[in-house]
Design a protein that fits this description.
single chain, about 250 residues, 4-stranded antiparallel beta sheet, 6 helices
């Protein structure tokens, strides 16, 4: 019912998942990420346990393929399930159950994997992967969104569109960015709008939040406030409206 991409950004070490589907709130159940550890997408006849247990296994030191082997061996429902994951070193692995609905399959490359089911055809994954690999000059979030749009343009979910999500983690247990379009006629376009809104203020504030390396976070907010004000002034000078619907009301 879904296709998705899991990736590690080699420039920053950040882990991300982008997913789209003709299914409500796909972002609530498919992506499972722990910063500095790994990213898991569990889909088809979803078992969220494959996400939570898979992260636990990665934390114990298992390699991605070992995680898949254990999850499959322990679950009689595995022929109906699909899973792909990547660890903090960029090693990836994937599994597509024999009973997943066509078209279904996966592709694995260095620091990235794509997988899907109920798709228009293999070209969806091929286009998603090709776009991601060609987008090395893009920021990580933009690279993931562009890749997913390439998959959508190649046919996407054969049933249509409804929801999409993007989650990116730094080396923390909380998300750096976690946005969702749960019920939308063009969910990937809505994700792009939400990402644009996030860049206006949210992601700058996110840089102030405490981390393991700096548990106090940024105490003086004045540099961030100045940066946000400067960007707002720059948009105004160019006649660019805020991407936020609330600001423009």
């Amino acid at each position: 019912m879904t296709w998705s991409i899991t990736a590690r950004d080699s420039a920053t070490g950040r882990l991300g998942i982008a997913v789209a589907s003709r299914f409500f709130a796909v972002g609530a159940v498919v992506p499972h990420i722990r910063g500095g550890l790994g990213a898991i997408a569990t889909q088809a006849f979803i078992s969220p346990m494959w996400g939570t247990e898979g992260l636990r296994m990665l934390a114990e030191g298992l390699a991605p393929q070992e995680v898949i082997d254990r999850l499959v061996a322990a679950d009689a429902g595995h022929p109906n399930r699909q899973l792909h994951l990547i660890d903090a070193q960029g090693s990836a692995a994937a599994f597509t159950g024999a009973d997943c609905i066509d078209w279904c399959g996966h592709l694995v490359a260095d620091s990235v994997s794509v997988a899907g089911n109920m798709l228009e055809g293999p070209q969806v994954l091929e286009a998603t992967l090709a776009s991601y690999r060609a987008g090395r000059d893009l920021q990580f979030a933009e690279r993931l969104l562009t890749a997913m749009q390439a998959g959508e343009d190649a046919g996407g979910d054969k049933r249509g569109r409804q929801s999409a999500a993007l989650a990116i983690y730094r080396d923390q247990d909380y998300a750096w960015l976690d946005i969702r379009a749960d019920d939308d006629s063009d969910p990937l376009a809505e994700l792009r709008r939400l990402h644009a809104v996030a860049q206006e203020r949210f992601l700058h504030v996110a840089e102030t939040m405490p981390t393991r390396a700096n548990p106090d976070g940024m105490i003086d907010r004045r540099p961030i406030d100045a940066r946000i004000a400067a960007l707002e002034a720059e948009r105004a000078a160019k006649g660019i409206a805020s991407a936020s619907r609330m600001v423009n009301k």
